[in-house]
Amino acid sequence: MKIVVIGAQWGDEGKGKIVDYLANEAQIIVRYAGGANAGHTIVIGGEQYALHLIPSGIFYPDKIAILGAGMVIDPKALFDEIKMLEDRGIETKGRVLISDRAHIVLPKYIQIDKERDAARKKPIGTTGRGIGITYSMKCDRDGIRIADLAWKEKMDELDQADLDFLAPYTDKLLEMSVDLGTYLMHRKNTQVLFEGAQGTLLDLDLGTYPYVSSGMSCAAGAAVGGCIGPRAIDKVLGVFKAYSTRVGNGPLPSEFDPTAEDELCRFVRETGREYGVTTGRPRRCGYLDLVSLRYACLSNSIDSLVMTHLDVYDTFEEIKACVAYNINGKIVETFPASVEDLNNAKPVLRTFPGWKKSLADALTYEEFPVAAMEYVEFIARYCETPVDIVSVGYDRKATIIRKSPWVL
Ligand code: GDP
Ligand code: IMO
Ligand code: MG
Fold first, then answer.
1. Chain-centre distance for alpha carbon 217
2. Prediction pTM value
3. Which ligand lies nearest the alpha carbon of 15?
4. 324 in ligand 2 pocket by Cβ < 6 Å?
C-alpha cells in the first residue's frame, strides 16, 4: 500500500509528527519534494528532533528512508543531519538512500537565493537554502543530479569551487544513490509512506504564486518526485492545523489582526510553539481557513484529513474559523488565484463554543468533549472529507486514530 502525506495549508502543519507516527506500519518512507527549507519536528518521549532532508521514518531502526527524485539536496546539510542523528544514537548506515535523479544544491545557489530575494521589491522571504535557484537550474536543464556525479564529462563543466565543495561528498552520495522507480517496483507489496514538505498553498502550481516555494508539494508531486505512477497511490492524507500559520510573505486571508488580535496571536504562537524550525522566524498566525482547506482537499484528491494542534484551543471560551471571504463586498467560497483578491479578502468568521478542558487525557476520539467533536465534524462536512486522525500534542503518543489509513 502506498500512502501520501501532504501539508494542506502553508507548511508546518505537523507532517513530520504524523509521518513518524504512521511510519510504524511502513517499511519505506520517501520524501518527495523540497530540500533543507523544510523543518519537520518529531518528539519521542521528550526527545525532540528537527529534520530538514531525511524522511521522518528514520527513528524506527528497521525502516528505509529515501530522499526522492523531486528533492533538491544540499550535501553539506544532508551529512550534517546524518551526523546529528548518529551523535544522538540513531543508526543510519545503509538506511538512507537517495534517488539518482534528485538534484544537488551548490553553495553558489544558496548565495544567489539570498541576494535575489533581498533585491526583490517585494521579497518572498525565502529560507535562503538555495531552493528556488536549484529548481530553476533544473528547469533550465543546467542542474546537477546525483547520477551526474559519476559522469566525468558533466563534472568537467563545473567550476573548481563547485568541484572542491562536492569532493568530500561524491563517493558517499553515489554509494547511497538508488534507481527509485525500480527499487519500489521490486517491492510492490511493501507499505510505503510518501512524505510531503511545505504545503498545498506553497506549491509552485497550486499555491499563492509567486509567494510559494519552488517544488511540487502537492499530492501529484508524490508520483513525480517519488518515481511512481499516479495510479499507484492508494491514499492521500492532508495534514492541517486547527488554525493557520505562514512563515515568510504572501497572503494569509484569515491572519489575526496585528492590533486588535495581538494577544490572541501571541497566545497561539507561544502555545503552539509557532517559530520556524529552519530559520527560527516567528510564524504569522490566523484563524483556520476552511476556504483554502477545501481547495486543498479538491486539488489533491485528499481522502482523509489529519487535524493537528487542536489542544492549542483547550482553554478557549469560543473558537472561530473562516468559512468564506468577503472580497470587496462579494462573498466568495472558492480559493482565488489572484494574490490581489487574496490580499483584499476579509475573513467571514463562524463561531464555535470552546470545550475548556484538556484534550491530552483523551485516549479515544469518543472521549473528546462534545464541543471539540462538533468543531471537528463541522470541518469534515465543510470539506466533504473525513477527519480520521486528530493530534492533541507534539509528542508521538498524543495522536488519536479514528480510522487507520493502512486499512483499505
Ligand atoms: P511540519 O513541517 O509540518 O513537520 O511541522 P513543524 O515541525 O515545522 O511544525 C509543527 C510544530 O508543532 C512542531 O513544533 C511540532 O512539535 C508541533 N506539533 C505537531 N503536532 C502538534 C499538536 O497536535 N499539538 C501541538 N501543541 N503541537 C504540535
Ligand atoms: P515544511 O516542510 C513553512 C516558505 C518560506 C517562504 C517560501 C519560499 O517545514 O512545512 P523557499 O526557501 O522554499 O524558496 O521559500 O516558502 N517555506 C516554508 N514555510 N514550512 C516549510 O516547510 C517551508 N518551506 C518553505 O518561508 O515563504
Ligand atoms: Mg516545518
1. 7
2. 0.98
3. 1
4. no
Pocket test for ligand 2, best of 67, 113, 126 (most atoms within 8 A of CB): 126
Q: Which domains does the chain have, with CATH numbers?
A: 2-237 (3.40.440.10), 242-401 (3.90.170.10)
Cα separation, 258 vs 249, in Å, equals 15
Q: For a pLDDT cut of 90, what percent of the chain falls above it?
A: 98
Query: Which residues have a catalytic role annotated?
Result: 12, 40
* C-alpha to C-alpha distances, 357 to 169, 215, 315, 317, 337, nearest whole angstrom: 51, 40, 7, 10, 39
pLDDT tens-place string over residues 349-391: 999 999 999 999 899 999 999 999 999 999 999 999 999 999 9
Count Cβ atoms below 10 Å from residue 24 Cβ, excluding itself. Answer: 14
Ligand number, closest to the Cα atom of 11: 2
Tell whether the torsion through CA atoms of 365, 316, 383 and 68 is positive or negative: negative
User: Is beta strand 47-51 parallel, antiparallel or unpaired with respect to 40-44?
Assistant: antiparallel
Contact 265, 275 (CB under 8 A): no
* Pocket residues: Cβ below 6 A from ligand 1: 7, 11-17, 39-41, 43, 272-273, 277, 308-309, 311-312, 391-394
Segment 5-49, tens digit of pLDDT: 999 999 999 999 999 999 999 999 999 999 999 999 999 999 999
For ligand 1, mutation pick of 5, 9, 17, 308 (most atoms within 8 Å of CB): 17
CA distance 110 to 129: 5
